[in-house]
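step=encode ok
step=design start
structure_in=
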């Protein structure tokens, strides 16, 4: 007998440039979640087109991302890993939901407002960027999703998804499950190494602020050793984001990769100097990254395996999403080809 598990839907845009911040905030939880939820892990390649330019190596980034999913322990026998554009139901529902969404509610989306500002005035804002949250709603609603793990920046999109689903359900009955955001409860947000008051970001111009999962190990050690601490005398290691942002950030990193909570680490680290502490963080992180990179490269070199994973994922995702789409179409009075 299969036990009932809630559905969890997660997606990331394809990118080969994943940082330890992304890993600790998001990807680290993926393998554990597969045991508690029916997980759908999607590579949002259609979303990536909203910021596409002819230099985007989309194909490479997509294959890189599948390899990262697998290297992080997502198991295709337990979870469904698929590429958004392989499941045409997403675009189909996207159009339908466009017709149940309001222009004014999309104009209120913070991410749209921000991305629009970043574009310089020679670059026009494409309609896809405006429509982005509705495609995201379609992704989520097709699978009768209960939970969506997201960062705080995406919470507004989940609220919009709920509003659209609620509006549709009020007109046509219980068609869509209303999803809940699953905001990472420990809230660990990894900060820049040299400016620990701002979030670590892959687009930082100063690469010493950021550690990428694929950084070579010697540069990882150097970056940790150069990271900003503080000048408290005598130096003591404790967790205080306000007064000791650098030390607290290193503690967060160490805690995430060793799976030990910060209180336990603090007991172990009592009485040591900052330099020794950095050595410990650098050592743990480099061992961790070495293992992760080895596994990543094994998957990345086997393109036929990657294709098999997403082929099987697409078949399963289509089966599940088609049910919802058929239901929607029939409620709308669209004529079915088959019955
Ligand atoms: N917008 C998300 C991001 O950039 C990616 C995404 C696309 C997503 N569709 C989704 C996330 C559905 C959660 C649910 O991070």
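sequence_out=
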């Amino acid at each position: 007998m299969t036990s009932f598990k809630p559905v969890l839907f997660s997606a990331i845009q394809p990118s080969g440039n994943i940082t330890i911040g992304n890993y600790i905030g998001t990807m680290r939880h993926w393998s554990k979640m597969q045991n508690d939820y029916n997980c759908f892990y999607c590579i949002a390649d259609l979303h990536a087109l909203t910021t596409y330019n002819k230099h985007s190596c989309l194909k490479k980034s997509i294959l890189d991302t599948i390899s990262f999913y697998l290297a992080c322990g997502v198991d295709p026998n337990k979870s469904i890993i698929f590429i958004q554009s392989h499941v045409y139901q997403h675009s189909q529902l996207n159009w339908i939901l466009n017709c149940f969404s309001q222009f004014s509610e999309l104009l209120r989306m913070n991410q749209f407002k921000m991305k629009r500002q970043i574009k310089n005035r020679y670059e026009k804002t494409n309609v896809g960027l405006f429509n982005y949250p509705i495609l995201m709603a379609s992704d989520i609603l097709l699978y009768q999703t209960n939970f969506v793990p997201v960062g705080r920046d995406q919470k507004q999109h989940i609220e919009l998804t709920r509003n659209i689903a609620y509006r549709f359900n009020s007109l046509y009955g219980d068609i869509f499950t209303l999803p809940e955001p699953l905001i990472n409860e420990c809230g660990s947000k990894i900060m820049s190494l040299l400016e620990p008051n701002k979030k670590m970001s892959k687009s930082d111009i100063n690469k010493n602020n950021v550690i990428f999962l694929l950084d070579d190990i010697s540069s990882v050690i150097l970056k940790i050793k150069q990271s900003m601490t503080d000048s408290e005398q005598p130096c003591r290691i404790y967790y205080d984001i306000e007064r000791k942002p650098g030390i607290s950030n290193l503690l967060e990193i160490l805690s995430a990769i060793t799976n030990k909570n910060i209180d336990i680490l603090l007991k172990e680290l009592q009485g040591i100097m900052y330099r020794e502490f950095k050595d410990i963080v650098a050592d743990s992180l480099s061992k961790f990254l070495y293992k992760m990179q080895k596994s990543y490269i094994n998957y990345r070199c086997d393109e036929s395996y990657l294709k098999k994973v997403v082929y099987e994922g697409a078949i399963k995702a289509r089966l599940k999403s088609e049910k919802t789409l058929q239901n929607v179409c029939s409620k709308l009075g669209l004529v079915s080809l088959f019955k």
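step=design ok
step=annotate ok -> The mean pLDDT is 93.
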